[in-house]
């Protein structure tokens, strides 16, 4: 009777590989923060907001109109995105304008979009 690969693999520990992976492990805070970013990005409404903001800086009114949502609903999503530094706010008088926080967010968005669009 042959052993399966999974069963035979469990009997051998590749010490060098395990040490390499342990050295490359992330601090727990970074793991938690990265998981939170991906969790927030896992919402279709927030993806639409990020897409809009990847095109142009926008105020809540314009985002609501572009996405056919209420300003209240957009504001709620913007607050979540801002708390994780995915977007930033710029005040101009009484108006707030929103944009992607930095090029890392744009790259993350574009990389994910490229991944789902290529077959």
Automatic annotation (TrEMBL):
- State the InterPro entries in the record: ArsR-like_HTH (IPR011991), ArsR_HTH (IPR018334), HTH_ArsR_DNA-bd_dom (IPR001845), Metal_resp_trans_reg (IPR051011), WH-like_DNA-bd_sf (IPR036388), WH_DNA-bd_sf (IPR036390)
PROSITE patterns linked to this entry: HTH_ARSR_1, HTH_ARSR_2
Q: Which GO terms describe its biological process?
A: response to cadmium ion
Q: Where is the HTH arsR-type domain positioned along the sequence?
A: 26-119
**Top-level taxon of origin:** Bacteria
Q: Name one Pfam family in it.
A: HTH_5
Q: Does the keyword Kinase apply?
A: no
Q: Which SUPFAM superfamilies match?
A: Winged helix' DNA-binding domain
User: Which UniProt keywords are present, listed alphabetically?
Assistant: Cadmium resistance, DNA-binding, Transcription, Transcription regulation
One of the record's GO molecular function terms: DNA binding
Q: What is this protein called?
A: ArsR family transcriptional regulator
Q: What is the lineage of its organism?
A: Bacteria, Bacillati, Bacillota, Bacilli, Bacillales
């Amino acid at each position: 009777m042959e052993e399966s690969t999974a069963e035979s693999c469990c009997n051998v520990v590749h010490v060098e590989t395990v040490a390499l992976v342990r050295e490359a492990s992330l601090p727990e805070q970074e793991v938690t923060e990265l998981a939170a970013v991906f969790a927030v990005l896992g919402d279709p409404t927030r993806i639409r907001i990020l897409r809009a903001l990847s095109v142009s800086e926008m105020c809540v009114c314009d985002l609501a109109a572009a996405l056919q949502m209420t300003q209240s609903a957009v504001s709620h999503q913007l607050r979540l995105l801002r708390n994780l530094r995915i977007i930033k706010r710029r005040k101009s008088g009484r108006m707030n304008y929103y944009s992607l926080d930095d090029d890392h967010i744009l790259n993350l968005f574009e990389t994910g979009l490229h991944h789902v669009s290529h077959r």
